[in-house]
Batch of 3 targets.
Target 1
Amino acid sequence: MFEPLRRLPAAVLILAILLAAPSAWAAEILGRVVGLSDGDTITVLNSERRQVRVRLGEIDTPESRQPYGTRAQQALSELVFGKDVRVAVQDTDRYGRTVGRVYVGSLDVNAEMVRQGAAWVYRQYSRDRSLLALEAEAKAARRGLWALPEAERTPPWEWRAAQRNGGGQRPAAATPAPAPARSSPASSSGFSCGAKQYCRQMTTCAEARFYLSQCGLSRLDGDGDGVPCESLCR
């Protein structure tokens, strides 16, 4: 059944092979990083002098308004900005960005961001279990975002969902609750339980201590040392 193939000219056979497997030639982007949008999105100027937006696959970094968001972008900039990269393409997201693993030489940038504690493993999209091991290692060593109090370590996909649902308000948006009718420790301090949940919503150390001791909001004391919201209560 393969006898007719043997009679084809070599050039025709080569062309047939190339046409049969175009994905092998389209699954990689080579270029130089000329811009960063955040901690997991870069702009690559490819060999055709065309700018391509690339979303680092399988990881997710804190948003710019989250704790460690700016530092995650700085970490990525140190790894890739102005450097030649290779992008192993995985997909295209709903925003039209190319999604893939980014390499500078032999360095896997996606994995390095996780190893440094500058990124979470994006559970919903990750297929590489070795990234979970790197994340566990970074967490155990308290590197990067893992050095933050637990209350400030909200996975970015949860943070975005809270923003879409109207949650995660900034402190200024939280209206103080009226004093409860029943006897409450809030009466002398002016604070009341239930209005706030996170360190980012606290305005003073005294308020954070009230929520920890009187409201039982243990998430404010991420490391269990009895001091809540250490950014306020240093």
Target 2
Amino acid sequence: MKLDHIDRKIIAALQLDGRMTTQQLGDRIGLSASPCARRIRLLEQAGVIKGYAAIIDEALFGLPVSAFASIKLSRQHEDDLDRFAKAVSRWPEVVDCYLMTGQRDYLLRIVVSDLAEYERFLKEKLTRLDGVASIETSFALTQVKRTTFLPET
């Protein structure tokens, strides 16, 4: 799907406030509600808009610890990568997972309530997964920036 300037305006506005009505959105970008709704539906059907969510303050929710775990697998065969990805996808503590280039295979961001909870996650889940050769963890001290707003292209 090729995005035009109106699609980009819609996306920018929804990134700022995903709860606005199509009428409010139309007023903001200069379109009536009906064409706005149609364009949103097309963006959703094309997968450009994947869904809508509330942005939660992790610390206030009781998950103030963010751990970044770099994972090296013993082998990088497709089956090994798929098995790891499927396992990680089932773990609610893992909020981000990236297949990486370089010396490590995966980078995970794990949110937990405290260090004891991370230790439990590590011992009961991550280290029990076949094929994990090494794990290096770094803990975030302060979140400097987090955004769901994408830059314009």
Target 3
Amino acid sequence: MTEQDTAAVVDTTDDEQRLGQAAVDGDEESRDEADIAADYIEELLDICDLDGDIEIEERQGRVYLTVTDDGEALRVLAKPDTVSALQELTRIAVQAETGEFSRLILDIGGSRDARATELQRLVDTAVERIEAGSTTAALPPMSSYERKLVHDLVAEKGFRSESEGEGRDRHTVITR
């Protein structure tokens, strides 16, 4: 390699480093929680050799990631416990990159809608017990997101609810 070739390589390397740094600086601003989470889930799907479409939505300051497919490929990942675990892993991945706590919500294959329907049935049954004379009705332990949904459903029916317990035992109690 001649001295002139070496100078050209050094110039190219310096230019690439400047361009690379500019790209990194731009990416840091535009690479937000949703992008990081979507990339993480996309990598997971690739590792599992699954196809899925990822939709990103932001509501009330919270990122919602929805993974859908045309068939049944995602059904193994759509189980409630699996979705909860993947959501936590995705939140950790976002936090590791941003340094900030993530409150994103992950839905795989319609699992959140299915769970919301199930929670509606639980609330309806609990309200029926209270209307039949019980003073309170306790629901099983659930995640903070699910408890929030329950509180909203209970309020819509004109009843009150509170979360009780600690950690994995935290549950909702409904009263008149």
